[in-house]
Amino acid sequence: MGCERRVLLAFSGGNDSCAAVGILRAHGYEPTLLTLDMTGDRSLLARARRAAEALDTPLLTADVRTSFTRQVVDYFASGYLTGETPAPCTECNSRIKWKTLKREAGERLPAGLKSPESMGICFLRGENYREFLRRRAPNGIRPGEIVDRNGKRIGTHDGCAFYTVGQKRGLGLPPSLAVVAIDAARNRLIAGEDEELRRRRLTVRAWNVPDMERLCRSRELRVVIRGIGRNPDGFARVRLERDRLHVELEYPAWAPAPGQPVVFYERDIVLGGGILAGSG
User: What is the pLDDT of residue 228?
Assistant: First the structure.
């Protein structure tokens, strides 16, 4: 079989990646499998080996535990501790999975292919994220005030890292009130009414946009924000100022939270994305 039919497939040993092997072979490709050791979980590696043997397909492994801890796990913990709502899978895909797959494919094969499989936040291993944060950063979790927009104390919280913008549960406040902002520096939650969560302006950092001119001139641009809030209807306009994208929405988004991924679409084409830095 020619080199152009050989591919490298990111492989967990789960149903999706096993099915991908069959699909590739049905289309005449010769897959080699790559499993990433991100957490040192031997059971996950053993599952991948068993599945690869059953599929009679060669399996490679790459140890990415150090970079995964530094660039994904630490990012997750520090994001919550600084009042953001981080999306670790977004960081993992760009900083760990794609880079490792590209490197391994370049060393072993002429081309690479990744088949994603959702596993939730893998490094929690079923642990509640609050317990994870208590264990990871015990000195960063402490009770504090819940205040209104005027700074009047109206309640207490268990730790800023345990809350996100738009959250109502667990506040001990009237059901009409939700977290509208997090002041991690002062260990404060700011609560307000639903209307205060509607935002028409977004600021995006750490963006990746292949064609900035197309993004900024598009008249059919839509925005999707991953999180507990509701995505905005209508179109959006984007302008670049220094290292930030400034987004004006036709209709407001509800409860966008710093740290969440933002994706820009023109019809069904992805023009780019980044991380939400703020809104107003």
Answer: 63
